[in-house]
Amino acid sequence: MPGALAGIRVVDLSRILGGPYCGQILGDHGADVLKIEPPQGDDTRTWGPPFKDGVASYYFGLNRNKRVMTLDLTQPAGREALLALLADADVLIENFKTGTMEKWGLGYDTLSRRFPQLVHCRVSGFGADGPLGGLPGYDAAIQAMTGIMSINGEADGEPLRAGLPVVDMVTGLNAALGVLLALQERGRSGRGQFVEAALYDSGLSLLHPHAANWFMNGKTPGRTGNAHPNIYPYDTVATATDPIFLAVGNDRQFRILCEHLGVPALADDERYATAGARSVNRAALKVELEQRMAGRDGKALADTLVAAGVPCAPVLSVPDALKHPHTAHRGMVVEMEGGYTGLGAPVKLSRTPATYRHVPLTPGETFLPREE
Q1: Which one, out of 21, 99, 119, 279, has a CA that is 20 to 30 A from the CA of 31?
Q2: Whole-structure pTM value
Q3: What positions carry a catalytic annotation?
């Protein structure tokens, strides 16, 4: 079954994470993606262990549903070969340092004159201009600069990087969204355009509700550990076994929680009767809740509470999460011939679902024929 983007041809010149993640999203949904690598390959081929046949797992996680070929764009022959590919392409993805494509005669102004229907997507650190324009960007550094680290960690601890490359990944998502917006508009105008997704912008965009809080009250947000800054109980709580995470968002859910813990009167206590009061008195409330949970098995308690309508979950390890029956039910672990296993596409379409056609490192020299 052809995907939603069947017939769309993508040249993916990007390396590392944000750009390749964008390309994989487009490929999962049917686009024909040609990944162009320099002679030494994408840097992430070396980002291990673990390795398979000398290529790191990091690379395998970002380059499914692409066919790969090598071009040396520092040489005229490589640039001419790229131009030949772009003649048949709908989308170009790149994340070279600002000015590199222009130095090669492949900047947007040049390419848009030659290929007016091309959507040119650039993933960058800070954009091309402004006080930080043109500087390279890296996920952890952007987390530091955009305030993400300042709100991540225990209240009495140091600022922490989020445990996954959240800025790079959200930038990849924003790039894919931008490409789809540009393709939609091209259907009306017949013209491509330049799409930019910057790590800096994406990092700032993640600051909800901390930015909204600061805009309203002027108070510098701080670290709250696992707890939500505005809602409580929205936090990990200890049990007799493993901790669970409570995500109680309204008074009704809180009342159900109190009833199941055998302390219904707690829901009428003026310190906890409203969402605002629970947030203000969170420290005392956490003590009250953990006293009632001290003799309960965490997983069993979480299952009971969820069944009763209280949002919560056990705190699982990565292997436990990936092996969970619902993970399999949602198709979120993909296995392909050749021993490839990876995460599935999170966007589900009813008529044109994601498909998994090419394992990483599938060779390719030209685009596939367009489907009629």
Answers
A1: 99
A2: 0.93
A3: 168
